Amino acid sequence: MSSKSIYNIKKNYYTGNYKENIQLDTDDVTVYYKSLSIIDNYINNGPSTESIDLKTEYQQLIISDDSTLSVLLDKYISIIDSGSQEGIFDDIDIKDILSIEDPQIVNYALTLYFKILLRNGTSSLEDIFKSVSQLYKTLIKELLASNNDALYPYMELTFFLGQIAASLKNWDYLQGLIEFLNGKVDIASEDEIMLSFLELIYGVSSLDTQSKENGFYFVEDLVFNSSGNNLFVNLLMINLQLSNKNYEEAEQLINKIKSEEDLSQAGVFYEYFLIAQINYYLQVGTGDKDIIKSLREELNQVCELNGTTDKNPYLIEQKALSESFDTITSKYL
């Protein structure tokens, strides 16, 4: 498979264009991202058919074997379908993964391992960050000491670590990761999409005007080169337009998405579309309280159906605000 094809596979995955990857033939090159595309399409866009679980959907497209990656993918799917499981890693250990000779497989397997740990909910985000960052530090130390001229092999794990750092608002750590990737290692052209997303996350969070502008141009390029109805890419642009107070452009994108006939109302992407609309009406301040109330009610319903009520960041924030208000009123009233 050509490097251009690998580039397209990774770009499709990280921009939410999962269906292109799901249609690929399965081989050693495509299996990781085809598998993740099946999983994330199920999570973010909902099941392909009514009342089907992820395992059934996955097994229609991928034949599992006894490889480490296959075992980890099966565990990941099991967690998504059935929820938290004690002893999920009883039969596999990080040492087993680190003993694999191919650094790219090590990279994929470690990323899956920590994705499972995060999804399982038995470890805190802080503990996962500590574990990943310590392991990452060891891997990088060994990599730099080897003086190997090969391309950087740990991009997926680095991207996952950057996402965790951003979730914890550890912006200094994220900035350090970005500087390391830009200055200390050579990354493959197909991996630049991950670096661009890390730079986007950091740019949006920072007060640096240049970083925000670079992020805007990156997403604008994604919009221009997408099929036009890529919900994930359009959501990125809506949020950037809102952050720049470009309300007319944000409204146009919202209306465009709402007009799409094949818009799935299941999955996490639709949850974020509802949140984007809530934020739009709150920011424009036109007094549309009934619309906001209706959107919040729909968000609650969708999250309940998706089983994401305890994971949706907007609902978590609203619950925290409500509990804080209740504490204040109980204390002073």
Automatic annotation (TrEMBL):
Classification lineage: Eukaryota, Fungi, Dikarya, Ascomycota, Saccharomycotina
Superkingdom of the source species: Eukaryota
Name this polypeptide is given: Coatomer subunit epsilon
InterPro entries in the cross-refs: TPR-like_helical_dom_sf (IPR011990)
